[in-house]
Amino acid sequence: MAVVKLKRPDLAAGEKLYLGAIFKGFLITMKHAFDSLRGKTRGSDELKSSGLGATMQYPEQKWDDQLPEYYRGAPALVTDEQDRERCVSCQLCEFICPPKAIKITPGEIPSDDPWAKVEKRPKEFEIDMIRCIYCGMCEEVCPEQAIYLRKDYAITGLSREQMVHDKERLYEIGGKRVGLVNKWNELK
């Protein structure tokens, strides 16, 4: 395969100094500044801005009502209507997680439990929210619909340890899901 060398076009004296581009950028910035002072900022109505500019005032105003239907937020575990764990510790979500943010330790269900036919449940289930990239693969691969991505984007913590959500925290923020759960199906 032949190598083709391209010669860059020679720049004029004004282009070499790039003062024209700086001046043009300054004019655009000033136009936006004067428009915001006159209350004619484009997009301020949709963002419910404070009036000056199109900046949303974050802690007071949030995107919750403007999130698209397909938005994927932070993952959480859910229980069924009777507060039973949906997770069967199959570890598919752990294996498919690209950043390896999920860690599961399977545990056995005692034989005297009425749901002992299920084989196992998670003894420990942790999701590192710092590592999580909110890709949704864990939700897609879960055969028991035990993990869901909720529409939550404001996850905060004061330390790295607080950003690792354990099983209790994941169930607390996940809540209940209504519907058929394969794990508790009598025909299974």
TrEMBL record:
Per the annotation, how and in what number is the cofactor bound? Binds 2 [4Fe-4S] clusters per subunit.
* Domain 4Fe-4S ferredoxin-type intervals: 78-107, 123-152
- Report residues binding [4Fe-4S] cluster 2: 97, 132, 135, 138
The top EC class is translocase
What are the EC numbers? 7.1.1.-
Report residues binding [4Fe-4S] cluster 1.
87, 90, 93, 142
The subcellular localization recorded is: Cell membrane
The record ties this protein, via SUPFAM superfamilies, to: 4Fe-4S ferredoxins (SSF54862)
> What's in the keyword line of the UniProt record?
4Fe-4S, Cell membrane, Iron, Iron-sulfur, Membrane, Metal-binding, NAD, Quinone, Repeat, Translocase, Ubiquinone
Q: Provide the cofactor list for this protein.
A: [4Fe-4S] cluster
Q: Which reaction does it catalyse?
A: a quinone + NADH + 5 H(+)(in) = a quinol + NAD(+) + 4 H(+)(out)
Kindly give the membrane topology term recorded for this protein.
Peripheral membrane protein
What does the UniProt function comment say about this protein? NDH-1 shuttles electrons from NADH, via FMN and iron-sulfur (Fe-S) centers, to quinones in the respiratory chain. The immediate electron acceptor for the enzyme in this species is believed to be ubiquinone. Couples the redox reaction to proton translocation (for every two electrons transferred, four hydrogen ions are translocated across the cytoplasmic membrane), and thus conserves the redox energy in a proton gradient.
Q: How does it assemble?
A: NDH-1 is composed of 14 different subunits. Subunits NuoA, H, J, K, L, M, N constitute the membrane sector of the complex.
Hey, which family's this protein in?
A: Belongs to the complex I 23 kDa subunit family.
The protein's name: NADH-quinone oxidoreductase subunit I
UniProt source species: Haloferula helveola
